[in-house]
Amino acid sequence: MPHEREDAAIECQLFNYQLRDSSEGANLYEALSYVWGDKSTRRSISINKCNVQVTANLYAAFLHLRDRFFERVLWVDAICIN
After folding, report:
1. Residues 22, 74, 66, CA angle at the centre, nearest 5°?
2. pTM score, whole prediction
3. What mean pLDDT comes out for the span 17-25?
4. Nearest in space to 80 (alpha carbons), one of 20, 24, 30, 40
5. 77, 36 in Cβ contact below 8 A?
């Protein structure tokens, strides 16, 4: 979710996303896959108002990718697969 402050807590929404047939055009989401990082260094994010622990590098990626004004739809393997 967007936030004007760069240091604001990370807030996300998890939802089902219907994939369209490729003949209908591009799907409107971005995929994020990354090196999993040190699992002992965890940060807390909010997903659907529940606290979820993620690796520090995923947290940093969310901070870097978050827009100040617009929502982004991301498919994050560490969250969607696990």
Report:
1. 140
2. 0.80
3. 67
4. 30
5. no
